[in-house]
Amino acid sequence: MNPDLNRLQPYPFEKLNALKATVTPPASLSHIALSIGEPKHTSPDFVKQVLMDNIDKLSNYPTTKGLPELRESIALWLSHRFHLGQDGVDPERQVLPVNGTREALFSFAQAVIDRSEKPLVISPNPFYQIYEGAAYLAGAEPYFLPCLPENGFIPDFSAVADDVWERCQLLFLCSPGNPTGAVIDSDILKDLIELADRFDFIIASDECYSELYRDENNPPAGLLQACAEMGRRDFRRCVVFHSLSKRSNLPGLRSGFIAGDDQVLSRFLLYRTYHGCAMPVQHQLASAAAWSDEQHVKTNRTLYRAKFDAVLDILGDCMNVSRPDAGFYLWPETPINDTDFAVQLFAQQHMTVLPGQYISREVNGFNPGENRVRMALVAPLQECIDGALRIKTFINGL
What we know:
The chain is α/β, with parallel strands linked by helices.
């Protein structure tokens, strides 16, 4: 077996299940889960209709490159959403459909890392655990940058030494951040692009939460947008990952895309052709419909704003918690250790949140996720309100 498999840590929810197994929650209370970032809003009816109308496409093999109409709908959306100008994105060379960002983020590292060079993969900390696993299985070492409140939960890239950048082959960004909701602004993105040129590494920007933002008039910037503002029409060394899971409440469709540097994408397409991970044709057609509509996305944002308003109104006077710029998570401090908080909350209130240390790593004796929990406001509004009230009761009883 591949010895690097032994370097993988259990997934956060495995750790959480083991933690919860030590206690019995009150049967009189229904379970409220704010631990998993699985959207619960209704999937768009028109997307489901396209899927059903094309179910006979099950008899067709899909191509790895994807249907032209899907790539064109993605390119149009990208160009409009991120102000990429008249030239925009080339759907033929600069867009590649993928089966959700999780699959693509992991496989991308396998394709681009040269394991003979003692490579580093740099990522935020806390982070989406796929970044770490992708690094290990590609033969690289992960290098974690803490996301701290004093820096707006954005990594301090200026503190990274040149010898680290020299070994870096892949930089994972997550903007808006999971779990912090922090958005990396365009100036920082431009600085990172210049670093990528100087030290010859690829930037992989995970932007799957980009459409869940607080201010309707101020959507988060993206990596390709920063490239366009620099006049960098080839998006050299830059790729972005997007998904319909959060944007359109379609996690079960397993549909997303990667876009950017065509030289990188052409090699990744070769890898994926052997990988055998083409998106089903009916999913591609449904995805094209989803990327072509914005009204359902605006409705989605409105629903999340209402939940943030209600939950923060309840928790604001009992926790150190703030509204994020984007995403659907809260990242509050806990009055006691985060794992103790999570297990006692489950034991007393039959409610699940995710300990912050389960999605972060200790570096030099410090874990930036410790004494925080991640709360995903994905449940219906009333369930989120009930959960916030249970948390407040629990904290007041400590």
